[in-house]
Amino acid sequence: MGQLDGKIGLVTGGTTGIGLAIARRFVAEGATVYLTGRRQPELDAAVETLGERAIGVQSDVSHLDALDELFATVQRGSGRLDVVVANAGVGELARLEEITEEHYRSTFDINVKGTIFTVQKALPLLSDGASVIVLSSTNASMGVPAMTVYSATKAAIRNLARTWAAELAGRGIRVNALSPGPIETPGVRGLAAPAQGERELPDRLADALPLSRIGRPDEVAAAALFLASDQSSFTTGAELFVDGGLVQV
User: Fold this and answer.
1) 46, 98, 162, 220: least CB-packed within 10 angstroms?
2) How wide is the angle at C-alpha 19 spanned by C-alphas 216 and 44, nearest 5°?
3) Whether residue 104 lies in the annotated active site
4) Which one from 26, 34, 71, 150 is the annotated catalytic residue?
5) pLDDT exceeds 60 at position 85
């Protein structure tokens, strides 16, 4: 028996990297998982990889009408949600003098607005005792050059977990933040400057970590499984770091 047998889950931004790894682990543990992505070809590929218990819904979390359509699909298909992972997010490098209004708007719209309204619109479908997991980052606890806006969004998301844990405790709904450090994903590789190259970036990031390596998406997925399952039944409002000791040591 899997730890999520019979559960219905949602993973936003589930077509690649951490989101895909979480969806894969949830399916392996017996859950039916709805996953979202903005691009249909990548979404189709992810669903094919995950198998029959994965249901893809093309959606952009920064658009409220798209979220309405997403949850209408979940309502028709399953009628409830037991686990919500608000994972969809973006991040781009921009030093203070380089920040534009468009950079600010697009990052906050996807990371913060998207997280808020994903969870808000999921509320009618959330079963009592459900688990909500929001994706923060070690950047919320550190000062990282050229990551002003991204880091601010992740700090906001960390506080959302605290507030919602208090608001939803009466229904037994647990809300926790999951904060990865450097993880080997397309998003992290995409931050490499052209002159540095994608191969050099993981090595440079690893030098800053006590474990001397960057993490794997499946390691974050294992932490998400803990927060989604009954193994974390007395854990809410918490922040779980999966960062190789980056923030703690």
Assistant:
1) 98
2) 120
3) no
4) 150
5) yes
